[in-house]
Amino acid sequence: MSLVLDPAAQDLLFREAHTANSFTDEQVTDEQVRAIYDLVKYGPTAFNQTPLRITLVRSPEARERLLGHMAEGNRAKTAAAPLVAILSADNEFHEELPALFPAFPQAKDAFFAERPVRERSAALNAALQAAYFVVGVRAAGLAAGPMTGFDAEGVRKEFLDDDHAPLMIVNIGRPAADASYPRSPRLAYDDVITTV
Predict the structure, then answer these.
(1) What distance in Å separates the CA atoms of residue 139 and residue 145, rounded to the nearest whole number?
(2) Neighbours of 16 (CB within 10 A)
(3) Please, what is the average pLDDT of the chain?
């Protein structure tokens, strides 16, 4: 095997990990969320722009507000998950670039002065960070249930502002015994990799 990562860690993060649809009632602590973030914050983004923002939905009132914006098939599992996170892209990420990318502090104005450019870049790079976040949840021994079945504009109005675009909702917790569907097929190496 040519991977350096221990096989047990490979299983935890990828081979044995599944999207969870149901969870035990064990709570997800702030300390666990902090540990997840402190790990995944090192994932690369263009110019280290790190546009992902995470809104944790903990209170029953906030959960109820969120459920009204979820697709019908996602409501029950979101209502029952120990923790729910709204992952969004900050379209004003460029304001932090002088501090986050000190090697070229002019990047803020040189590349990201126009809002449409920022929105495209924020969406792509926050999506990268969302993937790191899911892997970080797995690294904490938890399971994630990422979903895009929700009213994005409703969630934005309810929880965010005009500068943040919701990307996905992630249910987080310890997976229940029947939390996942059987593993679906994946494309083979030769179907994905092309050498030129």
Answers:
(1) 14
(2) 11
(3) 96
- The rounded distance, in Å, linking the Cα atoms of 80 and 25 is 8
What b/e sequence results for 110-120 when a residue is b if at least 16 CB atoms lie within 10 Å of its CB, and e otherwise? ebbeeeeebee
> Which stretches of 81-188 are DSSP H helices?
97-100, 107-112, 115-139, 152-159
145-159 pLDDT, tens digit per residue, is: 999 999 999 999 999
148 to 12, 42, 127, 166: CA distances (angstroms)? 24, 25, 12, 9
The rounded distance, in Å, linking the Cα atoms of 65 and 61 is 6
- Summarised one tens digit per residue, pLDDT across range 108-158 is 999 999 999 999 999 999 999 999 999 999 999 999 999 999 999 999 999
In this structure, how many other beta carbons lie within 10 angstroms of the beta carbon of residue 54?
15
Note whether 129 and 146 are within 8 A (CB).
Answer: no
